[in-house]
Amino acid sequence: MLTLFDVQLSFPETIEGIDEAAVQLQLSCDQRRMFQRFLGFETFRCEPTSSLAPFLHDAARLILQRNEALASRLTHVVHCHTLPATSLVGSEMQSVLQPFSSRGLEVFSATMNHCATGLTALNILGELLDEGEIALVLIGERAFHRVVRVIENATIMGEAACAILVGHGAGPYGVVDSNVYHDGRFALITGRPDEASDGEFSKRYLEFACEGIHRALSRFGVGLGELRCVMPHNVNVPSWLQIAQHIGLDQNRISLSTISRYGHCFGADPFINLMQARRDGTIGPSDLVLLFSVGLGATASAALVKVN
């Protein structure tokens, strides 16, 4: 069983309110009201002109410093990101993975499941790591342009740096199993406002997300009643209320409190919600929780985690 030994979350210091975001993102008054009143967004952490590598390296430094024994067994580092490229081609920007590859560690990036890539990486690492080996998973990117930050009528992106130490052995969060579900009909979705098939995916999103949850629970051999909580991606509040109603899950068992404070932080959301629920005391030892995320394309990734 793969174990999440520790999770470090870091956010930009700048707190951006919805009014400021509306100006920066050129939202109309109606769009601002929709994102705030209907979709549930209030503030974001975002510094899009700052460099990505130092942002993620700070999170990595903190988690490695407080886990020296695990850090001494580090063999793999993976950067999970939603955008296919996280820097300009040919730029002089420091690579996220270069400091680790220069130490002789095995490094790779993963992106093709977009916002679901962070959860998909757990599936990969569960198979890849041998006993005694430790991997550092880095999740995050900069929301540097309106096209990146806004999915029309759905969500606004914020920024978070997430660093996770994983491996085999006893720890606070055991990954019981994971599942990835694809729907190839939407494989060409780019997220651009003019994308012809985007409207069709929006119509089928609810069906797709519910099917992703049902398939995951069926694979895990677990019923909804056995879950203490669902840790979702922060696309927006009403879509999750619809999902809860559709699958027959009490909406109070979906962790939604961070949507208003952080927005949709790409692939980091389920881990943000997991840490928030642990701090709040919503989850505790022996609880089963479902980490779940949908990525454009379309992919639904899920991980069943036992809290120890």
TrEMBL record:
GO annotation (BP), single: secondary metabolite biosynthetic process
MF terms (GO), sorted A to Z: acyltransferase activity
Top-level taxon in the UniProt lineage: Bacteria
Beta-ketoacyl-[acyl-carrier-protein] synthase III C-terminal domain sequence ranges: 219-306
Pfam families reported in the protein's UniProt record: ACP_syn_III_C (PF08541)
Keywords: Acyltransferase, Transferase
InterPro entries per UniProt: ACP_syn_III_C, Thiolase-like
PANTHER family associated with the record: 3-OXOACYL-[ACYL-CARRIER-PROTEIN] SYNTHASE 3, BETA-KETOACYL-[ACYL-CARRIER-PROTEIN] SYNTHASE III
Name of this protein: 3-oxoacyl-[acyl-carrier-protein] synthase-3
Annotated organism of origin: Rhizobium mongolense subsp. loessense
